[in-house]
Amino acid sequence: MTLHRSWLRLLFLAALVAATEEQAAAQAGTVSTARVVSLAATKTGKLTMGVVSGATQTLASITDNTTNNFPIPVVIQTQWDLNPGQTGSVNVIGWFSTPTQALTNGAGTNIPSSRMKGKLTPGAPTPTSYPATFTAFTQNAVGGIGTAGGSLRLFQINITGANKTQTRTDNLSLQLDLTAAAVLPPGTYSGTLNIEAVTQ
Amino acid sequence: MKLPVKSTLLGALAAVTLGVTSLNAQVGLTSSLATVNINATKSSVLSVLINSGGTQNLASLTDNTTNNFASPVNVTTTWDLNAGSNVVLVGSFSTPAQALASGTNFITSTYVKGKMSTGTPTSFTAFTQNGVGTIGTAGGSLTLFTQSVSGNLANSRTDNLDLQIDLTGHANLLPGTYTGTLNLQAIVQ
To answer: Which of A115, B6, B71, B162 suits B140 as a labelling partner, its CA being 20 to 30 A distant?
Structure first.
């Protein structure tokens, strides 16, 4: 009786081992459904500009009927990191929000932007275009930046592989040209010149 | 056969569209806004310029009569103002009791007279008035003109000031050279 049971156990174990091996053999080479992981990494273009110095321009004494140069330049720094295949040029625009009132004495007398002039002394490398002589802020907006008749493109520089990443510093000189203008009432005339960069 | 051709064309169109999108991706990128504050001041102007006659000489002074200086003082007054009613030109001697002096002998401003045909004293008038505002001296001044600047805030005018030493009724002067300084100054009122 005891011997018979022992044989039965052995047979059962043998059958169990055999069945397990067969199952294992049957799963070899089985593959799951393919799943995909989408990877996306975006490096956005970068364009910044700031006024390094000369953010407050002061003319202590205006003289009628002549040119009045502001004593120090506005030093502007422009930085970009751009894809030359996606960007044609970098442009820096200066403008007055209300061209007919570029400067005002607060008492009803205004100096229009046509009397305000800018001249750029560029850093290296030389831009594609810039106002090398005093030029009035009477241009139109560029790429949606600026105001109609109250703007001046301070520089345009074409973007290539050679300059796709750059930091540059330029000097903007300002002038109040009252040549042939009506005599201004004495007083202090104040205004804000906006400067912004845009790609095209 | 037609279906593959259409698919190819659509694919090409999609590629072109994607290409355009990619090309323009960085156009219109803007920086932050920077501002420059601009202040320009025009100062008020009020000036007096003596064009000629800055030195007046009387070679021979005669007692007890009027002594006219030979040529007038030609003076230009210029103003550029943002407010005010009048520009007033005043002549004055600092020490009326000693308008002209020769050592310790004096001619008072009472005996010095001025005339401005285009101004206020159109006949010779003594420098015995008071000052105007902060200019001039009490009893030693003469207002030469009062010019309204209403609607005329920036302008100039040129006038001739004739001078006279009127020794009528004055005790005889001791001989000598009598010198003095007449101050001309303008004020806005």
So the answer is: B71
Interface contacts A/B by beta carbons within 8 Å: 145
Q: Which residue has better confidence, B84 or A70?
A: A70
- Give residue-wise pLDDT tens across range A178-195: 999 999 999 999 999 999
The verdict on a CB contact (< 8 Å) between B27 and A87 is yes
Model pLDDT, residue A54:
98
B37 in A contact zone (CB under 8 Å): yes
Distance CA B122, CA B143 (A): 11
Q: B45-188, what's its fold?
A: Immunoglobulin-like (2.60.40)
The per-residue pLDDT for B25 is: 67
Specify the pairing of strand B66-68 against strand A103-104: unpaired
- Within 8 A of A188 by CB-CB distance, chain B residues are 39-42
Q: Encoding tokens for residue B111?
A: 């005996």
State the CATH class of domain A46-199: mainly beta
Per-residue pLDDT at B20 exceeds 90: no
The DSSP code for A72 is: S
Strand partners, A53: A75
Per-residue pLDDT reduced to its tens digit, A142-192? 999 999 999 999 999 999 999 999 999 999 999 999 999 999 999 999 999
Ordered by start, the domain boundaries in chain A are 46-199
In this structure, the number of other CB atoms found within 10 A of the CB of residue A200 comes to: 18
Q: Do B80 and A186 touch (CB under 8 A)?
A: yes
For A196, the closest of B34, B42, B44 (CB atoms) is: B34
Determine the Cα–Cα distance for residues B50 and B45; give it in Å rounded to an integer.
Answer: 16
Chain B residue at shortest CA distance from A54: B36
B34–chain A Cβ distance below 8 A for any pair: yes
A38 phi and psi angles, rounded to 5 deg: -80, 125
